[in-house]
């Protein structure tokens, strides 16, 4: 199998084409290829498939074999890949995902794709759609308890479920300890990504995400969007912010018409071939 390794701010993916719709067990394939000791190593797979409703289709398989509805960093890598490999020769394309059709737009510098801007749709706050098991219609600044401690959280859907916790400082141990517990709380029947957000000022936030199905990652595009929306919604920031990760920044715009746009880099790391046994 030929593949390309790509990353968006350190959130890394193995991209491969399946334009002939061959049969693969993606659960097993993801676990094998994403293993950082015995495989290529990645947070997930991005699979290029034909679409009957858009220019192209993107499937996202997490490193644990589960399939994700959407991935912001993955979408930028995917758009750059299909353009540079001649699969879709448009600087603004439609991409089918499990969460609907997204519209990545390529931004060039000296005829080279420098950044990708992605229309991420609109945030959803309805608890029956996120979903959250509660009798409340939304889950904004609500209280949860874990191991005897109380946390104030906000949950919303930006392609995938996200739960935001505002913190005074980014503590890796807290993320590793609390992230997986919140991810699998019974009130989240489909699980949830967990975003730890430190507000720097009204235009800048720092985010670390415990990703459902992948664990702690260097960056999360949908998490950046969800964190930016939650920050503005709770009047901690403006609607447009820079989201800072360990390896760089994303620019998130939450417009008055409720649409979210994400802009950031996407990079190719290397290409190769691997034998599928």
Automatic annotation (TrEMBL):
GO molecular function ontology, one term from the record = diaminopimelate epimerase activity
Enzyme class, broadest EC rank: isomerase
- Site (Could be important to modulate the pK values of the two catalytic cysteine residues): which residue positions? 162, 211
Q: Which SUPFAM superfamilies match?
A: Diaminopimelate epimerase-like
Task: Give a GO cellular-component term.
Answer: cytosol
Task: Please name the GO terms of the biological process aspect recorded for this protein, alphabetically.
Answer: lysine biosynthetic process via diaminopimelate
Q: Which UniProt keywords apply?
A: Amino-acid biosynthesis, Cytoplasm, Isomerase, Lysine biosynthesis
**Major localisation:** cytoplasm
Q: Which residues bind substrate?
A: 11, 62, 72-73, 193, 211-212, 221-222
Q: Which domain of life does the protein's organism represent?
A: Bacteria
Q: Please give the catalytic activity noted in the UniProt record.
A: (2S,6S)-2,6-diaminopimelate = meso-2,6-diaminopimelate
What does the record give as the active site?
Answer: 71, 220
What family, per the record?
Belongs to the diaminopimelate epimerase family.
Protein known as: Diaminopimelate epimerase
Q: From what organism does this protein derive?
A: Thermoanaerobacterium thermosaccharolyticum (strain ATCC 7956 / DSM 571 / NCIMB 9385 / NCA 3814 / NCTC 13789 / WDCM 00135 / 2032) (Clostridium thermosaccharolyticum)
Name of the coding gene: dapF
